[in-house]
Amino acid sequence: MYERYIGLEISKINNMLRRKCKRENLFAQSEDEVTRKNGWIIGYLADNRDKDIFQKDIENKFSIRRSTVSGILQLMEKKGYVKREGVAYDARLKKLTLTEKAWDYYYKIMVKINEGEDMLRTDLDMDEINTFLATIDKIKKNIEEQEASLK
């Protein structure tokens, strides 16, 4: 028996962040607008604009199944946020690129994300932040290793 459970605390923080995003209308709920996962993907593509990013990279980065990513990307294409473009070195591969509409969204949302990050980091020094992030990395590794052992 533990005094506090890590999984429960992570769940609580996730719920609190989700409510904050909803209150601030950070991610719209209508079909034509950006969902939270769309926002993550847009951010990842923007942050890696100097690299060729493919569907498989999205699957690996966010631990999302292939069929789910495929559906998300198809909808993002339909909404005009991403394009799939061929690459010269392999005709089978289609890299993902952001449209101008996605870039506009990215620049607007980054202001809000950075404000939220500033709030989360209030009263934390760099040692505490680094320790927290290192701990989170270890927890993710533990989960990944457990998942791999079940395959």
Please tell me about this protein's structure.
This protein has 151 residues and is mostly helical. Helices cover 65% and strands 10% of the residues. The protein has 6 helices and 2 strands. It has a two-stranded antiparallel ribbon with strand order 1-2.
Short description:
With 151 residues, this protein is mainly alpha-helical.
- CATH class designation of the domain at 23-102: Mainly Alpha
Percentage of helical residues?
55-70%
User: How many strand units?
Assistant: 2
Report the CATH architecture of the domain at 23-102.
Answer: Orthogonal Bundle
Any key phrases for this structure?
mainly alpha, 151 residues, 10% strand, Arc Repressor Mutant, subunit A, 6 helices, two-stranded antiparallel sheet, 2 strands
Provide the fold topology.
Elements: H1 6-23, H2 36-47, H3 55-62, H4 66-79, E1 82-87, E2 90-98, H5 100-120, H6 126-150
Antiparallel strand pairs: 1-2
